[in-house]
Amino acid sequence: MPTTPHPRRGVTTCTRCGAPIRWASGPQPGQRTPLNALPSPAGGLAAHTNHLGGLVVRELTPDRPDPEHLEWKAVAHWPSCTGGSGTPAPTPLRSRPARRRPSVQPPLFGQPGRWSR
Length: 117
Prior knowledge:
Radius of gyration: 25 Å
Structural class: mainly beta
Distance between the termini: 84 Å
Helix content: under 10%
Order of helices and strands: EEEEEE
Low-confidence stretches: none
Strand content: 15-25%
Number of helices: 0
């Protein structure tokens, strides 16, 4: 019996196209995947909420072609994103230059310094 996710909980917007998305972990270990926020019957992924409240996704395979107990069909957002070329946005450049080192070095330990007599 497939379920449906909460309509607003865990939903953010895509920075490129503004569409509502959900972030899920998987299908590979350590991978984060953006999903369209609404379930889709044409989806090739099965998503469910784990016991910690995080969204986990797996690929539908010939061995397990249908969503199981508390899963719903989901679609990855990258193919349907209309805001760019389908690749992640580059990291922005720094808005200011890096800090410069001080021009005056402090004295070494044990050597007379500016305030020594």
